[in-house]
Design goal:
2 copies of one chain form a homodimer. Chain A contains 14 helices and 12 strands. Chain A is an alpha/beta fold and about 350 residues long. The radius of gyration of chain A is 25 Å and the shape is elongated. In chain A, about 50% of the residues are buried. Chain A binds a DNA duplex (30 and 30 nucleotides) through α2 and α4.
Chain lengths: ~350, ~350
DNA sequence: TTTTGTAGTTTACGCGTGTCAACAAAAAAC
DNA sequence: GTTTTTTGTTGACACGCGTAAACTACAAAA
């Protein structure tokens, strides 16, 4: 653990010069730069991050909040996290995992005030998310995976492109001849948190339905597969002409799929199923395998982290990955032409 | 962001006294303690973690390595992470997510030398895992989820209790009258990393098989469900008397299950299926739902983190959660009596 | 009264860095 | 040749805390 002083002595320069070589905040002549670089290499020098953070007032650490209560923690959250963590590392930052049971940000704020955190990434964002205000009020930078009601502006976020996703879904479904479609969404258990994604998708589906001449009827369920299974009968009873189900609720969707199996309802013969939020790893377990339009979670995590860090560093928004992601339609075995 | 100096002035004591009140490393009279406490509360004081780390030589930050290459990152890894992160928070530590593509620890070592990391938790541990030596050689504390070949000693780890798991599995299976069992394990794609869990489970299954009078025949597959599906025919051809499959390979298991569905092989009539490593969230997608003995990943992450931190702080190993976890047998729909 | 002891508190410094203001040397302008 | 400007480098200090060593006050022992 060599220090700056040792590097300076070995290179025959002052400590300040070593610092400026590292940060590039002052012009240093090429020969001196080389001497310093050589000395650093020889000593295996790495600046002490704690000292950097203390002197510079920035820790270059961000936190990713995992809300563990409302609907549990899904595999998709892990992908967000891995994408964000990898991006952070690429940019010289680090990402700490921050599980929260109750969506409270008190501890996060305290930790940020203690200098450990420069910023926070939130998931499962509500349309009116008080966490965002609370954090911004005390001067903590916030990045979102998802988005509040605020229109673009200077918000730092990565989110699904709900409009495009809905259009892709209904264009595909309408193309197969389906006219009556059930749209399966989530009902939060316990504390009601209206996630922004839900509202936005509902709106987008409504609009896209009109555009493609498809009747979209909304159904709700918890994320418990058993609840999804119980929904099959009501859906078919209420509107017998329904020939397709599009779901934003992966848990309920697999339950519903299982129920079709056990009741001998042909998929995709009688009913086509399209999931808008099922992670790749999950699909392999379903049979028949679900047709999906899933958001690229890893890339969204990456984008959110890069945007937050760009915001922290005050660098521009050029060369950043996209803000909105529609996700690709992957046709598998649960969708087909509507019955005549 | 009040500082120690302000607290000291408000309380009418020296800065050192404030420090000692916080750390408890010197005896301070009760009245003074109360004055200081009151001053801290009034100012909303939080010690600056960067300064603490710099002065104290400890960052109280640990990293969790996510190996993203060999078999991808599974949901179980997220649970390890959440358990470890929560434990860390409870103990005043923080856990950074550290994805690694190639199992290299060079960057981790560099970061630890820079003072940001006090220790590291490794997953997917090999019997002879060079990462452990590399880290320990440079004085970085290591905790394991899993375990190397080293017998207990002073190793810091949480691992599955393979013997108990194997006994539970075979006791249950033998009790159903099965005599010939296929044991389905993982074949690493690409770089061959022999994960310790694999070796240990094989041994345990062998021993337990003898004990319960069950013939256990080993089969290998990648974690790709399609590969698992392809294994059904060979298994039934090679040893027609096989009536049960026990799997350590969740991916292959779901593929195999799907293959029984599509080939009309009755589960559990003709073949019973028992998975030893399928996360809860995954099970809900399978139909019929898999009987499992799964390790409690959250608790194992918790245990590993607590043990690593206890090691770092030099506190004893009393009051720590268990080191070995067998996991509970959850009987669902894929196991039943052996055919006569 | 002096000495010894002890509990409680403070002084003083180090941890390793970022960066401002000052400075020397070289180049440019006059 | 002198003054001004530019370029490159450095000394000095601040960041906020932990802690060893010194010190004070006061009680107990001699």
């Amino acid at each position: 653990m060599a220090t700056r002083a040792e590097v300076a002595k070995l290179a025959g320069v002052s400590e300040a010069t070593v610092s400026y070589v590292i940060t590039g905040n002052r012009k240093i002549s090429i020969p001196v730069q080389k001497r310093v670089q050589k000395a650093m290499d020889k000593l295996g020098y790495r600046p002490n991050r704690m000292a950097q953070a203390l002197a510079g007032g920035k820790s270059r650490v961000i936190a990713l909040l995992f809300p563990t209560a409302a609907r549990g923690v899904a595999h998709v959250d892990l992908e967000y996290g891995l994408g964000a963590a990898q991006a952070a590392q690429d940019l010289g930052y680090h990402l700490v995992m921050w599980p929260t049971l109750d969506r409270s940000v008190q501890e996060v704020i305290a930790t940020a005030k203690s200098g450990l955190l420069d910023g926070v990434i939130l998931m499962e964002v509500a349309l009116h998310d008080e966490r965002v205000e609370q954090l911004k009020d005390v001067g903590i930078a916030v990045g979102l995976i998802g988005r509040t009601a605020t229109e673009f502006g200077d918000e730092v976020f990565a989110d699904r492109d709900f409009d495009t996703a809905a259009h892709t879904a209904l264009n595909y479904i309408a193309g197969l001849g389906h006219k009556e479609v059930a749209f399966l969404t989530e009902k939060t258990r316990g504390k009601p948190v209206v996630v922004a994604a839900l509202t936005r998708t509902k709106q987008a589906m409504k609009a896209a339905g009109k555009l493609y001449g498809v009747n979209v009827k909304n159904f709700e369920s918890t994320t418990d597969p058993d609840d999804g299974a119980k929904l099959l009968a009501p859906i078919l009873d209420e509107i017998p002409k329904i020939t397709a189900v599009i779901s934003l609720n992966p848990g309920a969707m697999v339950g519903l799929l299982q129920e079709t199996n056990s009741r001998g309802i042909s998929v995709p013969g009688r009913l086509s199923l399209l999931s808008m939020a099922t992670p790749e790893s999950f699909v392999s377990a379903t049979s028949p395998r679900l047709t999906t339009i899933s958001p690229p979670a890893y890339e969204m995590g990456d984008s959110a982290a890069r945007r937050l860090i760009a915001h922290l560093e005050g660098t521009g928004v050029e060369n950043l990955p996209p803000q909105l992601w529609a996700g690709e339609l992957v046709v598998r075995e649960t969708t087909g032409p509507a019955q005549a």
